[in-house]
Amino acid sequence: MSTEDQSVDRQREAATKYVTDRLKRPLNDIVAWTDKSTGTDTERSGYQEMVNSLEELDVVVCKSVSRISRSIRDLDRTVERFEAAETELHIIDEGLQIRPDDDDPFRRAVLQLLGVFAELEAKMAQQRTREGIAARVENDEYHHGPAPLGFEKDDGRLVESDSYDRVTTVLEMVSKGEMSKRKASFELDTSRRTVGRALERGKLYGL
Question: Is residue 162 a part of any domain in this protein?
């Protein structure tokens, strides 16, 4: 199972526990929508299916603000859709419950602020990726020898392999102390030395 799959599973488990323990709803009342994409807009199939079903729901639970939207504009639009459908939105990590009849200005201000941070985080991640690519292109070292972890050679040019996103996710977890190098080497089917070497080349992965 990939780290991305594990992340989705953890989010699903947290939402299920919230619904059964906090909202006291039975498991057969739960409908789950999943998006593995981490895009910065709302053009995602799971999100769109959820929005199209809002009028049939009384409450939606998500793990964090960033799971609903990655920009303040789309967050505003999403909340408006919930209000129009008279559906509650519960956000676990931030401890927010947005209700159609709730006109609390402080709660709205907190939601707006969280949306700003979610958008900023997404843009910073994009910038780190762009900087990593630029560093790779400029550094002659990457044009010779074997391709680094998560990359492959295309006519002597280094390009991301199909495993690049997974490698980046695992390396970021190691850099944050959320996963050991031993576990990372198992996840990526490589050696701890290779994982350490990849971490030394952090710019390649936007770290």
Answer: yes
